[in-house]
Structure formats: structure tokens, C-alpha cells
């Protein structure tokens, strides 16, 4: 890596460093808002007299919308650019957060938590923004810094919000703590719109000719692409079943069946868009130099599923797990302990980016996923011992 490609985070006068900082702060706030309920679940559970099943449903709802939201947000980013999309996402999530903070029933909590899953798409926006501003030799570590500090938002929620709720005091302290994060996110969305730019001066922001799907380079890859979308709709269908009378009885059986019909229609529509994007250029033939294997994308999808997916699960439940497992802990201490998991993003993501820039993507990914499996295995043994 040449000196020109090195990243000095303190040179704020450099436009690309400035862009990196304002973008990771945006991502940080999306994660802070997304997981602001996790360290306060004990207060929410008491305020609404919730069962363990209802708490689990809230945690599932919080991430249920994220996958389809990322697809939609990705399309919007390609079409109108990350600056406008990130700003709109922050402002919108701020309003949803305020609604959740002052919800008066479990049904309202569930609906707003489900909608809050949309903010989890913020990661996609910043990846495109950082990729536009940094050269390929340093984009790995730049996106690692962006991702690490952004994911730290969930740790910040775990560390700060229980204390903030107690400082506000009273039975509504948790509401004011959550509302505070929503207000900050909304205001920052306005700031981001005013300050951020999609590309460096003189650069062109390239947009795809067709929207709604990824271009593949062979018929076989097209069929694999279509198959890769099926698990998302199955997962959403199972979620609606869990919310029906067979689970927590949040929705009726008729509503569940209506959701299944909507999911089937959405899958048909998405499949149509993917076919529309690809059939013409596949019929004409794709030049050899432009071809790639979609299975590489599929492998990365599954790698992201087991890494980030497992992180979401742990971040959602860890504060409450510590509270229920160790009776000596209060919400503040449980939040501080739980934050340690997400704090590691500050080291792990930039390190992963540095490995990627210097040793290649494939080898780095294999090493890091192997380390993840070993870490979870050892953690499982420790938990069983307690």
C-alpha cells in the first residue's frame, strides 16, 4: 500500500477522511437506534407486563424486515445516491423510534419494532459511499473502520441507555432514553444531507441502466439467483406463523394467511424484476471479460449470514440474558457487560479490512469464520459451566 493510499483518520481536511467520519457516525446512530431497546428490555417487560415469549417476538421482529429492506435500500442507493437515502433513513427512523418510545400497547411496540428493522439497511448505504471515496487498495480498511465504529452503536446503547434511563428517573425514564436516540438520529439525518456528497469532486456517480435486480452472466447463475431469494420469504412466513395463535397470538390466522399471500406476490414480483434485468443481455451473450460466477456472491451471502446474523442475535439478547442469569447484576452493569461483545467491532472490522487489503479476501474470510466458530464453541462451554 503506497503512502497515498494510507488512511490517516486525523486529517479531517482530506475530503475522503471527512466523508468516512460523517458516514460512520451515521451508521453508528442507525445501530444505536436499532438496538436501543435491548438494554432496556427489563424496563419494557415490567411496564407492559410482557411474557418471555412476547419479549422473544420483539427481538425477532426487530430484525425481520432488515433483509428485504437492504434489497430495497440498495436499489434506491443505486438510483438516487447514498447521501439522500442515508439522510431519509435517519430522519424516518428517528420518527419510528419516537413512536416506539411512547407506545401504549404491546401491539404498538411490536409494529414499531418491526418497522425499526428498516434502519438495519443503513450499512448498505455507507458501503457504497465509502467505496466511492476510497481507492481499491485501501477500501477494505476504510470500510472496516466504517463498519467497526458503526456497529459500536449497539455497544453504546448498552453502555449508555440504562444509565440515561435512571438519570431521567421515574417509570418513564426508559421512554425518554429511547426517545433521545431518535431525536439525535433525526437531527443528524438533516446534517448529513447538508454536508455529505456522493462522490469526490469531478467523479461521476454511475447508475445501473435497469433497477430491481443484480445482473448475472449466465442462465445457470440466473436460476441460482432466483433460488437464493426463497429462504428470505420462508423466514418471513415462519415469523408470521410465530406471531399467529400458534405462537404469541399477536395476529389472527386470517392475517397470517394474508401475509403469506402478500409474500408470495412479492416473491413473484421480485423474480419478474430479476428476469427483466437479465434476460435481454443474457440472450445477447455476455463478453468473457465481463463474466463472473454468481456462486461467489452466494458464498458471501452465507458467510455474512453466519457472521453478522449471529452478531444480531447475541446483541439483541445479551443484556437480558445477563440480568436473568446473574441475580447480582442491575440493568446498568448488565448493559456494560453486554456491550463488550459489540465493542470488539472496533478492532475486528478494521483488522478484517486490513487482512483483506493485504492477504486477499478468500484467505482472510476463511480464517475469520474459523475463528468465529471456535469462539462460539468455547463460549458455549463456558455458559454450560455456569
Question: How would you summarize the topology of this molecule?
Answer:
Elements: H1 15-34, H2 41-48, H3 52-64, H4 66-80, H5 82-101, H6 106-116, H7 122-133, H8 139-168, H9 173-195, H10 219-228, H11 230-242, H12 253-284, H13 294-325, H14 331-343, H15 345-359, H16 361-385
Helix pairs in contact: 1-5, 1-7, 1-8, 1-9, 3-6, 3-11, 4-5, 4-7, 5-6, 5-7, 5-9, 7-8, 8-9, 8-14, 8-15, 10-12, 11-12, 13-14, 15-16
Features:
mainly alpha; 16 helices; 0% strand; Growth Hormone, Chain: A; 386 residues; 76% helix; single chain
Structure explained in plain terms:
- The protein has 386 residues and is mostly helical.
- The chain has one domain (13-217, 292-385): MFS general substrate transporter like domains (Growth Hormone, Chain: A).
- It has helices at 15-34, 41-48, 52-64, 66-80, 82-101, 106-116, 122-133, 139-168, 173-195, 219-228, 230-242, 253-284, 294-325, 331-343, 345-359, 361-385.
- Helix 1 runs antiparallel to helix 9 (173-195), helix 4 runs parallel beside helix 7 and helix 5 runs antiparallel to helix 6 (106-116).
- The longest helix is centred in the C-terminal third of the chain and has 32 residues, at 253-284.
- The mean pLDDT is 84.
Amino acid at each position: 500500500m503506497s503512502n497515498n493510499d494510507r488512511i490517516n483518520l486525523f486529517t479531517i481536511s482530506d475530503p475522503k477522511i471527512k466523508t468516512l467520519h460523517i458516514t460512520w457516525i451515521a451508521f453508528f446512530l442507525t445501530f444505536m437506534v436499532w438496538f436501543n431497546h435491548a438494554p432496556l428490555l427489563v424496563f419494557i417487560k415490567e411496564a407492559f407486563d410482557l411474557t418471555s415469549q412476547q419479549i422473544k417476538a420483539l427481538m425477532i421482529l426487530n430484525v425481520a424486515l432488515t433483509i428485504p429492506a437492504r434489497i430495497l435500500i440498495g436499489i434506491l442507493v443505486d438510483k438516487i445516491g447514498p447521501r439522500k437515502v442515508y439522510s431519509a433513513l435517519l430522519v424516518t427512523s428517528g420518527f419510528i423510534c419516537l413512536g416506539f418510545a411512547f407506545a401504549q400497547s404491546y401491539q404498538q411496540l411490536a409494529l414499531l419494532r418491526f418497522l425499526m428493522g428498516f434502519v438495519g439497511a443503513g450499512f448498505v448505504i455507507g458501503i457504497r459511499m465509502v467505496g466511492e471515496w476510497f481507492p481499491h487498495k485501501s477500501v477494505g480498511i476504510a470500510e472496516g473502520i466504517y463498519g467497526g465504529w458503526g456497529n459500536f452503536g449497539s455497544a453504546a446503547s448498552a453502555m449508555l441507555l440504562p444509565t440515561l434511563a435512571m438519570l431521567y428517573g421515574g417509570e418513564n425514564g426508559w421512554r425518554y432514553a429511547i426517545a433521545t436516540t431518535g431525536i439525535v438520529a433525526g437531527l443528524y439525518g438533516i446534517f448529513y444531507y447538508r454536508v455529505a456528497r456522493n462522490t469526490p469532486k469531478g467523479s461521476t456517480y454511475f447508475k445501473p441502466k435497469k433497477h430491481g435486480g443484480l445482473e448475472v452472466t449466465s442462465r445457470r447463475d440466473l436460476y441460482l439467483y432466483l433460488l437464493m431469494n426463497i429462504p428470505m420469504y420462508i423466514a418471513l412466513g415462519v415469523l408470521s406463523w410465530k406471531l399467529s395463535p400458534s405462537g404469541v397470538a399477536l395476529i389472527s390466522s386470517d392475517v397470517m394467511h394474508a401475509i403469506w399471500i402478500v409474500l408470495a406476490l412479492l416473491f413473484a414480483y421480485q423474480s419478474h424484476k430479476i428476469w427483466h434485468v437479465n434476460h435481454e443481455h443474457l440472450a445477447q451473450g455476455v463478453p468473457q471479460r465481463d463474466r463472473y460466477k454468481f456462486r461467489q456472491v452466494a458464498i458471501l451471502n452465507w458467510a455474512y449470514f453466519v457472521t453478522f446474523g449471529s452478531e444480531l442475535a447475541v446483541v439483541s439478547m445479551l443484556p437480558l440474558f445477563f440480568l436473568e442469569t446473574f441475580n447480582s447484576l442491575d440493568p446498568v452493569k448488565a448493559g456494560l457487560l453486554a456491550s463488550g461483545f459489540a465493542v470488539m467491532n472496533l478492532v475486528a472490522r478494521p483488522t478484517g479490512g486490513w487482512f483483506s487489503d493485504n492477504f486477499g479476501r478468500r484467505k482472510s474470510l476463511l480464517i475469520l469464520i474459523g475463528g468465529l466458530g471456535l469462539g462460539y464453541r468455547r463460549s458455549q462451554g463456558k455458559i454450560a459451566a455456569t
